[in-house]
Amino acid sequence: MPEMPSLGAPSKSSTPIIPVVIAATVAGLALGGLFWIRQAPSTVEAAPVPQAAEPSAVEPTPVAAVPGVEQAPAQPGSTPVVAAPVAVAPAVPGMKAFTVTITGPLESAIVNSEGKEVGTALTQVVNRSLVWWLRVPQDLVKGDTLSVVYETRDHQEPMVHAVRFTSGKLGKTFESYRFKADGDAFAHFYQADGSALEERLVDSPVEGYEQITSLLRDGRKHKGVDFKTPVGTSVKSTFDAVVERKNWNFRGNGNSVELREVGGQGRTAMFLHLSELPKTLVPGQRIKRGEVFAKSGNTGHSFAPHLHYQLMKNDNPIDPFDSQATSREKLATTQVAAFEKQMGEFKALFPASGVAAAATR
Fold first, then answer.
1. What's the CA gap between 191 and 343, in Å, rounded?
2. Does residue 261 have a pLDDT over 90?
């Protein structure tokens, strides 16, 4: 390849070199000085132009499609919005409220409204109210409406304060509100008439518990009833029994005891995730109904303090709420006024569309 000529090669013209160079230099300096004066920045720095905010490190949760719910066509730069959920920003700090119309799975409706990060756990908490009114998902039908008031908490499941559900199949609107009565260790859910949402076992394995977080009827295929209760709560036998065994499959059950009913219906009862067992408790030992024999805990395959109570007959799990006597408490007369005041505050947080939907049923 031939060598490229160098830039600025000497000209073969007879024009004197030195005068030309001097003239060109003077002209260049004059023009450069004029340009510099016009372009020089002010001595006061201009404020920086605000930059667009960096995108969050957490990707926005995509809205899952729900059968029967039409979605608006996505515009460039916009997020698809599901038409069914209606949400408002409550005036109470930290509280959130929404109303959804059921057109498919319950979890899909809640996740579409509140996002997957919150919605999945929130569905489980809401379901704890619904299971006392209807069978989930069998009794859910298209067009049912659900309104919820809740708040999120760091490293904990969402706390639900109020639930209203209008059932097309049952033709009824159900309501429950979280309320702590004077003298009670925990807040509990009560229905609009002041009756407790949850039934109670007359011969309960624990007395001081906050909430039942799992039932055989809740659709999770759980074989027992989970009582949310602090570590160290007294655990009692629910019938006259004999100790059958203890601490089997410790990795899953933790400290555990199985009692075999004496007489009666031939049932056995398992108590799992106990904090500790007395060394004096041995197989063959007699335990009377209502006798305290252990303390609740959080051992084995357990993610939070609770008691797992499992009732069996002929090697099959049975529902204690079908096999044992139950009752439903009601607020004391002295607590009604305070409850109704708080209930009214929660009702005011429900989106208006949820109230309208309930009123039309």
1. 9
2. yes
Q: What is the CATH number of the domain that holds 108?
A: 3.10.450.350
Q: What pLDDT is attached to residue 93?
A: 65
Can you give the CATH number for the domain in which 230 is found?
Answer: 2.70.70.10
Residue 56 scores a pLDDT above 80? no
Q: How many helices (H) and strands (E) does the chain have?
A: 7, 18
41 found inside a domain: no
Number of structural domains found in the chain:
2
Alpha-carbon dihedral angle through residues 187, 188, 189, 194, given to the nearest 10 degrees: -100
Average pLDDT over residues 99-114: 95
Q: Is the model's pLDDT at 344 over the cut of 70? A: yes
Instruction: Give the H or E element holding residue 82.
Output: none
Its pTM stands at 0.71
Q: Is residue 52 part of a domain?
A: no
Q: Please indicate, yes or no, if residue 54 is contained in any of the structural domains.
A: no
Beta carbons within 8 Å of 20's beta carbon, 6+ residues apart: none
Average pLDDT over residues 80-90: 42
Q: Are 144 and 167 in contact (CB under 8 A)?
A: yes
Phi and psi torsions of 325, nearest 5° = -65, 140
pLDDT at residue 221, rounded to an integer: 81
Under a CB-based contact definition with an 8 Å cutoff, are residues 262 and 243 in contact?
Answer: no
Q: Are residues 182 and 300 in the same domain?
A: no
How many other C-beta atoms lie within 10 A of the C-beta of residue 93?
6
Range of the domain at 188: 82-198+329-361
